[in-house]
Each structure stands twice: as structure tokens, then as C-alpha cells.
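User: Structure please.
Assistant: Input sequence and predicted structure:
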Amino acid sequence: MDIKVIDKKTIALLDHNEETARLVYPSSFKMDANILLPNNDEYKIIPSGFFSSKMNIVHRGEVVGSITSTMKGNIELAFNDEFKYTLKLTKWFKSEYALYDENKENIISVIPKFSWNNFSYNYALKLKSTKVCPLLVLACLYSVNYMIQLMSAIY
């Protein structure tokens, strides 16, 4: 799987050069996002409140998961079917992010590279398994973008 940045608001997930899913930010000024899967399923990521550090993953009006920023500087992804993941910054100067499961095994690694020509990020993706759900990959990518925005605002 590869990641292709289409424009500043749209990121496509490619599998063998075919688009399998898409992450779309409707506005540049909000943290809302939509994940579009190939079978016309749409998942929305919306903040749970103005001062909250939690975002809900909503599918057909029901909350199916959450993305939460922790006090340790990590981001936790939790889905209602009892799967919990932790996103951590693994290499500070190379800015590599890794998603770990409950057994502390690395599932996904995302390496953002800033492009000064386009003034946006390009992403390199490393998957431990070929059978990773596109929803999990794009939720992880959303979390990486969220973590980059948090660090840019703080430092």
C-alpha cells in the first residue's frame, strides 16, 4: 500500500496503483475528516467537544471508535469491537510514527516528509502485514496529521 497526496485536503490510499480509500478534510480550519471506502462506506471523524482531546469515528450515525490524545504524548485509537492501538513518535529527528497493537507489536509505520515545493507533506508507509484494514491505515494517518499539528502548535 502507498499513500498519494492529491491536494492539501485529500489523501488517497493506493494498493497496486489503484485507489482503495480516501481521507478527505472538508475544511482547512477544522479537524473534521471523512474516510471514504470503496464500497461507498463513509466514516466521519469529528471532535467530541471544543476543549476535548478526543475525536469520535462515526459510521451511519453511530460512534464506532475514538481517537484520543494522551498525557504521555501518544494517541490512542480504540474501536468498539475491542481493538485498541497506540500511535507513538518513534524517531524524533526523522519523525517516524508507529502504530502498535495491544501486544505492543508494530503494525504500521508512517514517515511524513515535508515538501517545500508544495508546502505539504508526502508520506511513506510501511505495513507489517498485507491484510491491514484501510480504515485503520487512514485513521492512523489522520492521527499522524493530528499529532504533527499538536507539536507544531506547542513548540
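Helices lie at 134-154.
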